[in-house]
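Both lines are quoted verbatim for reference:

——
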Amino acid sequence: MANTGLQMLGLVLVIAGWVFEIVVIAGPWWRVSAFVGDELVVSQVLWEGLWMTCLSQLGRLQCKAFDSGLALSSSAQMCRTLCILSLLLCLLAFPLIVTGLKCTRCLGDAQEPKARLVRTGAIMFLVATFFFLIPISWTAYVVIRDFYDPNVAAPFKRELGPALYLGWAVTVLMVVGGAVMYLGSVSPGTPAMPVFGKGGKGNPPATGAESKPEKVFV
């Protein structure tokens, strides 16, 4: 039987992770300007995200969306695509999970098909988390690589923004939520592997116990 408590706990975790994922993807705080070398202008801070750039100057924030997505680098386009795929997978997983929850009556009393739907939705959430983790980790790698590259000028160096740290926390939250939801939909009495040779019928008798025919004398 499925565990309703684990299912609801996993659902709350993945919903919270999905909401924070939207915040991370939409926000411009992926990369922040780095102050290195002889640069003394600290009153201006440049924030960069997947969809816009923001300039913070003396407490005022001005943001501008990218004019063309095709003009972006292939790395930025790849990050955008993976983030959109992650959000779409989560949207597709939500109806499956809600339909298969033990506390709902969408499929009547058929517990095993409902549990199978929840497990499928949990796997989709885990795949979506993987799609979201790739652009977060790749952006962090590019930022660190360019920061220590002596060929990159100081004004073009960037540091890790708070959205990247939040993104890593979101991936942990969604992985834990998906795992808890999956485990809450597995029947505890079901063996991990089929067992053979127990409870079988028609076992042949031992060869030593075979009865010999009696001889008849006339």
Remarks:
- The beta strands are 31-33, 44-48, 52-57, 60-65, 158-160.
- The chain has four helices and five strands.
- Residues 190-202 have pLDDT under 50 and may be disordered.
- Helices lie at 4-26, 74-100, 111-147, 162-183.
